[in-house]
Specification:
By secondary structure, the protein is mostly beta strands. Helix content is 0%, strand content 52%.
């Protein structure tokens, strides 16, 4: 059974940092593109960052709103993907979800809450 489990969310002050982790099980994800999405109350779930497989060049993509502040990375040995978030803003408050896609199906973690507030 494929599972994605996120951790690392919490409360941060504006300007602060958090590091989210997503560990997969049930499959080797090293050949899959992995992504982080977020969903704030009243908003649709939106892609924040994505990282291709090593075979695909390991290319990264970021939403304009997080470019220069967030960094996505992966550790294939641990079947994990990370999202380092810095210079956090109140607008970053959302539930963050780990995602991958294969065999015509999307797979999601349960989400981790990030709240940015003073």
């Amino acid at each position: 059974q494929v599972q994605l489990v996120e951790s690392g969310g919490g409360l941060a002050q504006p300007g602060g940092s958090l590091r989210l982790s997503c560990v997969g099980s049930g499959r080797d994800f090293s050949r899959n593109t992995m992504g982080w999405y977020r969903q704030a109350p009243g908003n649709q779930r939106a892609l924040v960052a994505r990282i291709d497989s090593i075979e695909g060049g390991g290319t990264t993509w970021y939403a304009d709103s997080v470019k220069g502040r967030f960094t996505i990375s992966r550790d294939n040995a641990k079947n994990a993907v990370y999202l380092q978030m810095t210079s956090l803003e109140p607008e970053d408050t959302a539930v963050y979800y780990c995602n991958t896609y294969f065999s015509n199906s999307n797979y999601w973690g349960q989400g981790t809450q990030v709240t940015v507030s003073s």
